[in-house]
Amino acid sequence: MKQIVVVFLSIVCLSGALRLTAQTYNAQEVAKLKAFLIQNSAEKGKKNYEQLGVASLDAVDWKNVSGLTWNANGRVESINWNKKKLGGDLDVSGFADLLVMHCEENRLQSMNVTGNTKMTYLDCFNNEFKSIDISTNVNLTRFCCRYNQLTKLDVTHNPKLTFLCSSGNRFEHIDLSNNAELVEFYAANGKLKSIDLSHNPKLRDVALRTNQLTSLDVSNLTKLERLTCYENNLTTFKASDCKSLKLIRAYENKITSLDVSGCTALETLAFYSNNLAELDVSECPNIEFISLMNNGTHTLKLPPNPSDKLRIMCERNRFTFSTLPRPSFLRSYAPQAKVTLSAPSDKIDLRSEYKLNGTASVFVWTDRGAPVIPEANRDGLFSFAESYVGKTLTCTVTNPAYPKLTMTYEVSLTEPVANIIVESEVAFRTQRELLCLTASRPVTVHIYTIIGALLRKQRLSEGETCFTLPQGIYIVSLSNGTVRKIVIP
């Protein structure tokens, strides 16, 4: 009886073992895998199968091939072949149950993933692809193809994408209008000439650095937290009402206007080497770091109560002592550009630079290096003899409040006010981007930027004359000797 039981159990175990060893693998998938494994790898003298530890393709133990995971139906469920020194053309089209695929950092020339509708994750960065078709991979949520040689990329059939990394490719445009779920988008070090992010409200991280973009608008992306777009050709940049935005790196562009109004979470603004005359961060109460060097900036508007952590780097701009931020905020601020202006010889008005934080400035005048003593000096209001009319004098200004900075003014002296016939009284009125002058008699007006560049010269008739001017600070000089600093709101 015992012998019968033992024999019966042996038969049961043997049949189970036969069933285990008899597991079959999808013939089509096996054939495509073999076709790839027989190809030359990235390492000279070796085949792909050798890089995966397969001794021979004559008798492959598919269950134990490195990086392959099979499901109970004998189909490939995942492939993990990153950094395996693989080469050639990989065709996994029609792998119906393939969910996840890693083949990054190899030297693959092409890859076919068409028909893999269940795939959710595809990472193939740092290969040698010139094209890839993911139009049938409709369930993809994460796709990385960075550092290939793609000249175009179509993701319009991948509405579930939350992560897209396409940096280091060669395409000039990409359509993201059907990717409303996108949270992370990285397209740095490429050739992008334009980008529209208005259809991607869930974006949190965007990297567009080192491309060929000329404009960028991320306004109203309320979930955006980090944005890098430095080293492009940007001239305009809008980021208004990005209430979650904490970091902007937009240096080394050609930006002339920046809108960060409503960016209440903004902490870091790296913006050096642009062409920004004015910067307004007054609606960014949490700002902690601004790098603004080499911009030509003359006006910086800070929040009403800046954070004590705020640090600013603003050297190589057009600030003066009176327009520089508070010294405690400054990490670096010198040098600043030379100021060039013209003024009547008996009315050179530098009173705005005279006293800073209760400390008087020191003014030193020279004519081609030779010291010059003004005829009069009253708290930064200077006058010189008529013999200096037509000359350009140099004035250097220092103040202990900003010990590292020496400001230089080059002042071309014109006819003194005393020699100009007083023609009229003029009333000034300003409103949004508008300056209006009302004259009782004809008068000539000169309108200068704060750094002395002439914008308008016009003879005014009786009555009101209005000039359209961008927001900023201007110097208005009248032929009756009146000189006023005007702020256009």
Write up this protein.
By secondary structure, this protein is mostly beta strands. Among the domains are: 234-337, no CATH class; 339-418, Sandwich (Immunoglobulin-like), CATH 2.60.40; 423-488, Immunoglobulin-like (Sandwich), CATH 2.60.40.3080. The chain has three helices and 38 strands. Strands 1-2-4-6-7-8-9-10-12-14-16-18-20-21 form a 14-stranded mixed beta sheet, with no helix packed on it. Strands 22-31-30-26-27 form a five-stranded mixed beta sheet, with no helix packed on it. A four-stranded antiparallel beta sheet has the order 35-34-37-38, with no helix packed on it. β32 (426-431) and β33 form a beta hairpin. The longest helix has 20 residues, at 2-21. It starts with a helix and ends with a strand.
Features of this protein?
489 residues, mainly beta, Immunoglobulin-like, 14-stranded mixed β-sheet, 5-stranded mixed β-sheet, 3 helices, elongated, CDIRP, repeat, LRR_dom_sf, leucine-rich repeat
